[in-house]
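Re: the request from the purification team.
They wanted to know what the chain is likely to look like in 3D before they choose a buffer screen. I agreed to run a prediction and write the result into the notebook, where they can find it.
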Amino acid sequence: MIRDVSSLTHRHVRSVVSCFIYLEVAAQVMAGNDKVDAYRRACISSKAFLDETAVCPANERKYFERALSGTIFTLSEKQIWSSGYVIHTLEAALWCFLTKGSYRDAVLQAANLGEDTDTTAAVTGGLAALYYGWESIPDDWLKVLARFEDIEELCRRLNNKLEANG
């Protein structure tokens, strides 16, 4: 399913695997784990999945070494890129999420990395919102969103489905 959805815009295996890793972190966050623990658990489960399947050829695995190291948050800001390249976006989003203590700070850090700021901030914001909660998003940021009511309704519907599925 991840391959089908991510391939609508980015069909390359690196994009598909990056989405998989991102969703593994998100699932661990939604399971109630601390963010560092969620990241490390996602690294373990992602590596196991890649080992057990043919989704990612061996020559592609090297691109995920930093993201799946379990230590991306120990890198300095100078070692993080925000170019828009999917590997850079994944690493930057994980780094911003893991090194900052609030939704606002994580998303601002992502934007302040420069280059492809909208993509990196959006990906970071997804994890940060799951971890810190909807109410952690600054009100003044929400008020300027186009179609805010539609977004809010989609969030309510998703939440209802998640609650119904336990």
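For the purification team: The two ends are 20 Å apart (CA to CA).
Please add any questions underneath this entry.
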